Structure formats: structure tokens, C-alpha cells
Amino acid sequence: MTTAPAGATGTSRRGPRLSGLTWLVWRQHRAAFWTGLTVTAAGIAWFAYQRANMMDYLDSVGWPHPKSPTWSAGFETYESQLSDFSSVLGLLPVLVGVFLGAPLIANDLEHGTGRLVTSQAVSRGRWLAMKLGTAALVVTVCTTALSVAFGWWLGPVRDQNGVLYWLAGSVTGPLPVALGLFTTAAGVAIGMVLRRTLLSMVVTFGFAVTVELVWATCWPQLGNAVTATTRHGVGDGTFPQLPETAYDLNQSYLTGSGELLSSNSCALENEQAINACLKQKDIVGWSVDYLPASQLSPTMWTGTAILLTLTAAATAFVFWWGRKRLY
């Protein structure tokens, strides 16, 4: 009986395999890469499951022309889920920055692996390019897949109201991808400077959370706002009628002379005091700045361009620091 050589049989069953520096980078960070890919696959499956449940409900009420005016009460559960998961997706850039970006180079510097690699036939530039390129590829694939899947879940109802259109809509499209790439590049830069893995992760966490908070406040300001005013007082029914999917940026009191005052200018204890305040300040109506629905796409692309520019700057710093001050 003739038996095929073990090595020949094993080779015939193998598919394409990584080699050289690519294999080393994947091997070093395989736990983070596989975790990201697994979470992405699980997230897509969960979004598909939730979308199927939502569509079953919408079909049962005759969507897009519901038979009963009370259908919206039953839809609140699905709307709440969309809002909650948009918040969860908003945290992904923080996680990739902390668990992928920060240790990517810092761990090598702390344990001397980077010096060992670059002492071989591998240049510092190639080593850094492979590290950053592989991490950026994984981040791009995962965030794009989750963004597209969430947009698919949201799509049938995104025009339902301003909350779904703007808050949930902000985690679809290119914006979350660019934000993930920026926090990853920033985490790498922080790790290279601090050269300690745990410390880098802590600092990157603080940095990424700050970026998230600032960005969540500032990115709607990138759009071209429209102002709606009324001069019918500030009682019931006097607030400007905004489009259904408008994003309310700012509300102010309007005085008879056209001056704008804070909507909290007359936040007093009782109605009599409030009315006296309104009369004293000559407040005659409202002034509201808002973004119409048409501003969502240009606002997201403008924000994406800014984040990609910051990512390029952080990446350039990583290569500059790596060539000049790594060892």
C-alpha cells in the first residue's frame, strides 16, 4: 500500500496563506482582528433579525399607509431600538482606537519586538506601513459593513421623523468609517509617543471619548442652517412649523427690535413672573435655526473630509516619528 507524503497532502488542501511581514502582523494582532470581524458578523446578523421583526410589524399595520392612527404607539419599540443601536455604533470608534490603535505599535516598543523586526531585512517604513495598512483595512471593512447593514435596517423608516433621520442616519454612510480610521491613527500615534501599552490605551480612551463628544456636538454645525421666525408671541401654537425631518439646531426668543435672546431668558417660577419678563424684554416670537433634510448628505461628506484629513495628519506624524525618534 502506497501512502502519499504527508507534506504533499497538506499542501494540496491549503488555500492562499499569508507570508513574510503580512503573516507576522496578522499573527501579532490576530486576536483584535478576529474579534472585530466576529463582532461585525454578529452585528450584521442581529440587524437583519431586528429588521425582519420591524418589517413584520409594519406589514401588519399596512405600511407605508397604516390603517390605524395608533400604529405609531406600537412602532415606538422599534424606534427605540434603532436609536439605542445608533448609540452603540457611535462607540465603535472609541473601541477600535483603544483596543487596536493604541497597542498596535506601543506593544512592540514596550517588548522590543519592533527593534527585532527592523533589525532584519525590513525597513521601519515598511514595517509601519504594513502595521497601519492592515489595521486600517480591518477597520474599514468592519465599520463599512456595520454602517451599510444598519442603514439597511433603518432605510424603510428613516424619513419617519427627525430623530431617526439625523441621529440614526449619522451612523450610516462614510462618517463612522472616517471616525474609526481617525481614532485608530490617533491611537497609534499616542502609543508611539508613550511607548507603554496600558498607558497608551488609557490616554487613547480619554482622547477618543473627547473626540466623540466634541464631534457629536459640532458636526451638525457643518451644514447650512435655515432660520424660521414667528411674531405671534411665545404661547401655545406659536412655535415655527418645521419640516418633519428637520434638525433643530438652536431656539431663541425674538424681540420687537429683532434681537435674539436665549430661550431660558424668562425661565421663572410662575406664569405671572414669566409674562412680566416677556413683556419687559419685548419678546414677540421665536427664532429657530434648523437643518433641512437635504443637508444631511453634504454635512456628512464635509465631516468625512475633515476626519480623513486629520487621519492623514496623524498617519504622517506616525511615519515621521517612526523614522526619526522610534529608537
TrEMBL record:
The keyword Transmembrane helix applies. It comes from the Bacteria. Coiled coil: none annotated. It holds the Pfam family ABC2_membrane_2. The chain crosses the membrane at residues 31-49, 85-106, 127-153, 165-190, 197-216, 300-321. Keywords: Membrane, Transmembrane, Transmembrane helix. The keyword ATP-binding does not apply. This is ABC transporter permease. It comes from Streptomyces yaanensis. The lineage of its organism: Bacteria, Bacillati, Actinomycetota, Actinomycetes, Kitasatosporales.
